Amino acid sequence: MAWGNQTMVTEFVLLGLSDTWEVNVLLFVFFLLVYMATLFSNVLILSAIISDHSLSDSPMLFLLGHLALLDLCLASFVIPRYLFDFVVQRQAISFQGCMAQIFYLHLFAGGEMLLLTAMAYDRYVAICHPLRYASLMSRRHCIGLVLASWAGGLLHTSVQLGFTINAPFCGPNRVDNYFCDLPYVIKLACIDTSPLEVTMVTNTGIMSLVCFLAVLLSYALILSTIRSRGPSEGPNKAAYTCTSHLIVVTMYFGPILFTYLHPYTRFMIDKVFSVFFNSVTPFLNPAVYALKNKEMKAAIRRLLVRRSGQVSAHGRPAIRQSEAATSGSWLGAS
After folding, report:
1. Rounded distance between C-alpha atoms, residue 312 and residue 306, angstroms
2. Which of 10, 87, 185, 285 shows the greatest Cβ crowding within 10 Å of its Cβ?
3. Alpha helices, DSSP H only, in 137-232?
4. Measured at the alpha carbon of residue 318, what is the angle toward residues 313 and 319, in degrees to the nearest 5?
């Protein structure tokens, strides 16, 4: 297209989430606490998996480690800048910076959608086809699923950025959110934005819808299999875990579907939903997927004991063998 040379806007103004000072202070505290908790929990999970080879050999925990990495990336490309800009009272972002935010948002969010789908498939195979689990979820297959998630996210964001960066922006330049995203930026283009809106719906909306339906189908088959095995403590725990997973997945996909599947019109609730999938879900994922897993909890305890032993002048006693041998499946919520 010949639009690239027509771009006149050199920066965008981020209007944020509120015009009220008191509300913005509360939002600053909220984002700061959520980001610190997200950073701590996801780094802790990654450190535990990297330091314990038995965890990285587990397909579910291998995928979970990459989910923690994506959550870190998804939360870190927007929130620190938002906090810094609030402190220095700066609202402007360069055109290149705005396009970079769009690129990284859809790279990490697209990759996470595909990875959540892969994790749902992993649970489906583990519960519904346990005898084939070792072959279907071998290390080679797990690496393939992770690479496919990143490649899918890269392809997805390249398409998004391709039709956005080539559109002419000649003013206005006020983005009605606290970061740059397609629904808010493309409506500022100096052309008929209908084709851009349709492309956004086709790309992001359909992709998220297909992934969400695939996740729902996987968990529906899992719950059906669990129910067919009759009442017992194990199935009850599995059903509880499935429900908690579905709640978090819905909190992630729901805002994305609502935001990207309705072209031409923006609602105030869209900004609230953007907070959910950009900030809240990366904070909730560790608690739901990792910290209820017995293996993961045991590995985190071992990691913390090792770290505390390294900083202690007299050291700490070695970890008891019984704790080191602690294991539990993904169903072992406690």
Report:
1. 10
2. 285
3. 139-165, 182-185, 194-200, 206-228
4. 130
- Quick one: which of 18, 12, 17, 85 has its CA closest to 274? 17
- Dist CA 170 CA 193 (whole Å): 14
- How far is the C-alpha of 269 from the C-alpha of 248, rounded, in Å? 19
Q: For strand 92-94 and strand 174-175, is the pairing parallel, antiparallel, or unpaired?
A: unpaired
Assess whether the previous peptide bond of 168 is cis (omega < 30° from 0). Answer: no
Contact 301, 328 (CB under 8 A): no
Q: How far is it, in rounded angstroms, from Cα 26 to Cα 322?
A: 45
Residue 323: partners with Cβ closer than 8 Å, 6 or more residues away: 298, 301, 302
Residue 251 has pLDDT above 90, yes or no: no
3-state secondary structure of 12: strand
* Secondary structure percentages of the chain, helix, strand, coil, to 5: 75, 5, 25
The pLDDT assigned to 21 comes to: 86
